[in-house]
From TrEMBL:
Its cofactor is Zn(2+). This is 5-methylthioadenosine/S-adenosylhomocysteine deaminase. Substrate binds at residues 98, 191, 221, 306. Keywords: Hydrolase, Metal-binding, Zinc. Belongs to the metallo-dependent hydrolases superfamily. MTA/SAH deaminase family. Belongs to the metallo-dependent hydrolases superfamily. ATZ/TRZ family. It holds the Pfam family Amidohydro_1. Residues 60-410 form the Amidohydrolase-related domain. Zn(2+) binds at residues 69, 71, 218, 306. The gene is mtaD. Catalyzes the deamination of 5-methylthioadenosine and S-adenosyl-L-homocysteine into 5-methylthioinosine and S-inosyl-L-homocysteine, respectively. Is also able to deaminate adenosine.
Length: 439
């Protein structure tokens, strides 16, 4: 018998390792934060003796979800400015509010609120793009979640940095500080083609190659973005990015609602990843992303919530369902994005885009034990003919009961183990009071 840290017996196991196979009455063995075996329960009991054993007789055990685009601290702006188009929302409400309130303490409180919401909803990894990423990093470090943190660049002064050099310098410092961290990686995060100039984008590409990190950017989010680019540069943003050499497997193009067939082909040829944010795109009326066409072209589609100020939650189960439904509605093809594909987009595809697929995104032996348990025997979950269908079309985040990141039990029977929920709530209420008083 081999001594291990953790053995989880699950009614169902959905490893997301390539085939749609579902394992019934299997057990997952974890040692020193890594998955060491996935095998029938009777065999597991014969082979392993575990310090901790969990029985999930009503649950599916599956990889934790990967939220591939967001602005975690913006949870503190949830509901501050609704029902507006992107540019009016940014210029008249969000950027002024950021100028007033965003600093280290704001980002720490907002990130903690976001991490609490994400873990409760089954997200175990998130990709972030926001100011004061050191504050988010501290929250990630102490709460046990996994994250890829953006080295942001936006070509106007903010409370975080005054010019491109300072943004790049602070980004590099973040990367240097966390490059050996077991759960924190970094990415370059130039805000958008309309807020970053050519020379800076070219520099970011050079730096990204040197540091071997991804680049995430809001791209082709709205019709007006395309028109502004044509007015200022005489070309569409993607044509500009192509000339600058940014179309590559490093790029995670976020939103992508306005696309010509040749742009989809260009991105597919270049190996660009897509971060699809269906709820944010709908709420800001930015447009519909042609997900079926991109999926069929072979692009790696991932899913993100965007910030809670434009969503207004961080619910990856909702985003998976919206992804599958919208793809059908937009393409007129009911076979577009079947349930299993939506699950891939929210798990392994996200890990591939972030360059961490060797660590997370599926329940494969050797990977970190990043996983969630979802209860599937209650009124809303029966009968069950198809596990993937059930998870995408009929399950909400309220069914997530447990989450582990690198084997650490960060959500235990719906209770957060590494965050103080009452402090998070009182900090958020305090910030809301301050923000409300000066609006
Ligand atoms: C450079 S930090 C991120 C920056 O982006 C703003 N933002 C949030 N959501 C969106 C969106 O959908 N499109 C463009 N910009 C967005 C956020 O408020 C920060 O200023
Ligand atoms: Zn965004």
């Amino acid at each position: 018998m081999k001594a291990i840290d953790l053995l989880i017996h699950a009614r169902w196991c959905l490893p997301m390792t390539g085939s749609t196979d579902i394992f019934e009455h299997y057990a997952l063995a974890v040692h020193q934060g890594h998955i060491v075996a996935l095998l029938p329960q009777d065999q597991a009991d014969q082979q392993f003796t575990a310090t901790q054993v969990h029985r999930l007789d009503d649950h599916v055990l599956m990889p934790g979800l990967i939220n591939n685009h967001g602005h975690s601290a913006m949870t503190l702006f949830r509901g501050l400015a609704d029902d507006l188009p992107l540019m009016q929302w940014l210029h008249e409400h969000i950027w002024p509010a950021e100028q007033r309130f965003v600093g280290d303490a704001f980002v720490e409180a907002g990130s903690a609120l976001a991490v609490a919401e994400m873990l409760r909803g089954g997200t175990t990894t998130f990709s972030d793009m926001y100011f004061f990423p050191e504050a988010t990093a501290r929250v990630v470090d102490r709460t046990g979640i996994r994250a890829s943190l953006g080295m942001v660049v936006i070509q106007f002064p903010t409370n975080w940095a005054s010019d491109v050099n300072e943004y790049l310098h602070k980004g590099q410092a973040l990367h240097d500080k966390y490059r050996h961290h077991p759960r924190i990686t970094t990415n370059y995060a130039p805000h958008a083609p309309y807020t970053v100039d050519d020379a800076t984008l070219a520099q970011i590409m050079v730096n990204a190659e040197e540091l071997d990190v991804p680049i995430q950017m809001h791209i082709h989010e709205t019709v007006s973005e395309i028109q502004t680019s044509i007015d200022n540069y005489g070309k569409r943003p993607l044509a500009r990015l192509k000339e600058l050499g940014l179309l590559s497997p490093r790029l995670i193009a976020t939103h992508m609602t306005q696309l010509l067939p040749e742009e989809i082909a260009d991105c597919a040829r270049a190996g660009v990843h897509i971060a699809h944010c269906p709820e944010s795109n709908m709420k800001l009326a930015s447009g519909f992303s042609p997900i079926d066409a991109m999926h069929q072209a072979g692009l790696n589609i991932t899913i993100g919530t965007d910030g809670a100020a434009s969503n207004n939650d961080l619910d990856m189960f909702a985003e998976m369902r919206q992804t599958a439904l919208l793809a059908k509605a937009v393409s007129g093809n009911p076979s577009a994005v079947p349930a299993y594909s939506a699950l891939e987009m929210a798990t392994i595809n996200g890990a591939k885009a972030l360059g961490i697929a060797e660590t997370t995104g599926s329940l494969a032996v050797g990977k970190a034990a990043d996983m969630i348990a979802v209860e599937l025997t209650d009124i809303e979950s029966v009968p069950m003919y198809d596990l993937a269908s059930q998870l995408v079309y009929a399950t909400g985040r309220d069914k997530v009961t447990d989450a582990w990141v690198a084997g650490k039990h960060v959500l235990k029977q719906k209770q957060l183990t590494t965050l103080d929920a009452s402090k998070i709530l009182s900090d958020a209420q305090q910030w809301a009071k301050t923000i409300k008083a000066s609006s």
